Amino acid sequence: MSASARTVFRSPLVMVAGVALLWFVVAFLVYPNAVTLQQIFFPHGSPSTRAFEKLWSSPRALDSLRNSFLLAAVLSVTVNVVGVFIVLVTRYFTIRGARFLWLGYATTLVYGGVVAVSGYAFVYGENGFVTRLLTSLLPGTDPAWFSGMLAVVVVMTLTGTGHHLLFLSSAVARIDHQTIEAARQLGASPWRILRRIVLPVLRPTLFAVTVLTFLGGLGAFAAPQVLGGREFQTITPMILTFSGIPTSRDLAATLALILGAASLLLLGILNRLQAGGTYFSVSKVPAVLEKQRIDHPVANAVVHLLAYALFLVYLIPPLLIVVFSFTDAATISSGRLGAGGFTLANYQRVLTDATASWPFVVSVGYAAVTAAVVIVAMLFVARILHRFVNAVTITVEYLLHIPWVLPGTLMALGLVITYSVPQALTGGAVLSGTVALLAIAYITAKIPFTLRLLKAAYAGIPDSLEEAATVLGASTFHTYRRVLLPLVLPAAAAVTALNFTSLLDEYDTAVFLAHPLYQPLGIAIQNATRNQGNSDATALTFVYTVLLMVISTLAIWFVYGRRGGAGPGRSPRRERRRPKTPAAPGLHDTPIA
Fold first, then answer.
1. What one-character-per-residue DSSP string does 390-401 give?
2. Which CATH code, of 1.25.40.10, 1.10.3720.10, 2.40.10.270, 3.40.50.12640, is assigned to 57-313?
3. pLDDT in tens, 137-192
4. Residue 327, SS3 per DSSP
5. Architecture of 1-42+344-559 per CATH?
6. What is the DSSP letter of 44?
7. How distant is the alpha carbon of residue 243 from its chain centre?
8. Taking the model in full, what pTM does it have?
9. Are 478 and 414 in contact (CB under 8 A)?
10. 422 Cβ partners below 8 Å, 6+ apart?
């Protein structure tokens, strides 16, 4: 549906909202990045290549660049290999205990980011539980064996398969069973069927998760900072280091710019590779996929062994964190479980002591404010962008997707550099070092995801509903409130839940912008991880982690668990017929349309 630019601004409410939106886009999406580019290329008002000369003459910066690209390339392979394997053993092959295995693999959905890195450091780090066992059994074992690039790759591989469980599992469920049976009747082996029929159908989703994996590896922060050591430093920790030195901020901005350029280049290459392929079933009457048996006994045993070995690797860190969250400081320090070491004092302290609960309260506050502001604003903006299609709205929509194009590090650095001095766009206020700047960064980061899904939800509503309300004499506002809004509320609620939980343990942006007195949970967990000798801080970290896992589990159930579809290892059931409301495409399918 199209309309002229004059029609868009006919309503005073739309005009006021449009002006506010334009100010926000210019002040916090466009101008900070323009200032960053100006500091790199025009530091004193004239063209300069000084920042690039400093970069090429800095061995640490060059090593971080090489390590980041190497990590991203390795993760693109390892995460896909492990992710495809766990999806196949839970959704495609007949594996004993597939539902049980899926629960272990699904811990990555409620346990990721700096929380997961801290958990692996507690289990396998220099003072970790497993490391103490190894050094006691094998006295010559190096306590720092789990560090460097290998440790970073292992942790990021295991924690990066959540997208496969969510999106690749849905793609596997859409494979046509008749096509597989036809290939089997023609004499194709199971391996050939998997390689020539199954994997090509999954290719669009694999492209999408590969993009997410590569970008995640390129901008990795918590894992290299905690586990990388001095031998394996990547771009983002270097940007944090250089941004804290006023004379090196141009070098930090240059690294962030290279990170953004690499992200854009990757998106372009993968979109070009994906274009022109045929990735759908050609059967006219598709049949529900039935699980495939592995007939070869040796192959069947090997697959079962690998599946359960991975299950243990996934499950051990969160399981130990839950157990040790109920123990006292002495038990945590020694790593030896005993009947007398269990206590509820840690939970009592977090829930009753204001000092101990403060990081959790700060994170909940930031997450709640961000989720509420973004969903309220984007419900209105997405409706305008869907209802009126013209040069103005298309331009605004592209500008609102800037946080998806540029890495969060570059966005955060631009805000720090721009608003460390008075700016006319904010009435001369200095925002650096204030509580508001981190909230602004969180809001900008969540706009693209929220906008995309809400716009898809509006697109799923038939135009006839709005036309019928108009014919019956309903005003535009009444039609929106009584007809359109109830239909998009399920998608809006799901997006709000996802935005809220994703910010509870956010670390990468908070470490740049957090106020010293209002540091969120991600920073508190990171500080406790780096100071593992403090058992009291470690105990609080365990409690924080358990609470986050509980909240994330409830959010995942709220978004995905109520759909009544077939779960892993479960046959699809016939649903009762009932009226369906449009849902947001993308929430239960692929992350990139």
1. SHHHHHHHHHHT
2. 1.10.3720.10
3. 888 788 888 888 999 999 999 988 888 887 788 778 777 777 787 877 787 777 88
4. strand
5. Orthogonal Bundle (1.10)
6. T
7. 24
8. 0.77
9. no
10. 428, 429, 430
